[in-house]
Amino acid sequence: MKSFNPTLLKKLYIPPQNSHKGQNGKLMIIGGSKLFHAASLWSLKVASRIVDMIYYSSVPENNDIVQKVKEEFRGGIVVRRDKIEDYIQEADCVLIGPGLPRKEGQEEGDDDTKELTEKLLKKYAHKKWVIDGGSLQTINASFIPQNAILTPHSKEFERLKFKIQNSKFKVTVQNSKLEKQVEMLAKEYKCVILLKGPTDIICSHQECVRVSGGNAGMTKGGTGDVLAGLVAALYCKNEAFLSASSGSYINKKAGEELFKRVGYYFNASDLADEIPKAMKELIIR
User: Fold this and answer.
1) Is the pLDDT reported for residue 64 higher than 80?
2) Orientation of helix 154-162 relative to helix 167-174, angle to 10°
3) Total-model pTM
4) Contacts of 201 (CB under 8 A, 6+ apart)
5) The pLDDT of residue 242
6) Is the separation of the CB atoms in 227 and 205 below 8 Å?
7) In the chain, alpha helices (H)
């Protein structure tokens, strides 16, 4: 499997000088719960630096937090869960799952993650989707829309393999090397899979790359949510495989720059703040 070629970053969309608000990406983020309130906020933090408009929908407690700090993403709208579908139709891409609970993690007042996710994926299968966290862990694989981007860590990838219904195909996958497994599942579900790890593996149904780098500081809680927000923001104006592979590369480079200054001692918020600097150096310069 070949390594990601950083010259491909030059293919990423750059806002034209004469563009207007809304033309450079509109992202819907559906995530968060009473237990996991911070996850969707990290996705929001990084994405708000990239796209023109964010529609953010979470549980009331999270919506209130975001409403109070809207100065950090002035181009955004806080959306009640009963109004989600109105804004999905407006969005270029939808990120669903960061901070959404699994069944055993749900508290009173939380949505049923599986029910919510599968309903929206089925109804809006034509949209660009990034599926992460709780949504990725709970849905039936048959609901994965074509060209969706999935962002599993190793345990979530194991759950994804478990959901394979064709027993013969499941055995073939289990007996293959990890890189081949990602490739086979991406082809099976006609999606893009970004398997997170010390070396990320990104596959579509047509091609695969690996992205090495980063450091152990990026194992901290929330860094995966930052990556999901970055990838979703890029997917608003770029195709799926380029968004996933470029997001992986940018994310790791940002982590490496943080390591130069503070070693392993940074968190998800630091990573979200570093990503725009990395993007400027890698894409615009």
Assistant:
1) no
2) 150
3) 0.94
4) 1, 178, 179, 182, 193, 194, 195, 208, 209, 210
5) 98
6) no
7) 38-47, 60-68, 84-88, 113-123, 133-138, 154-162, 167-174, 178-189, 223-235, 240-262, 268-279
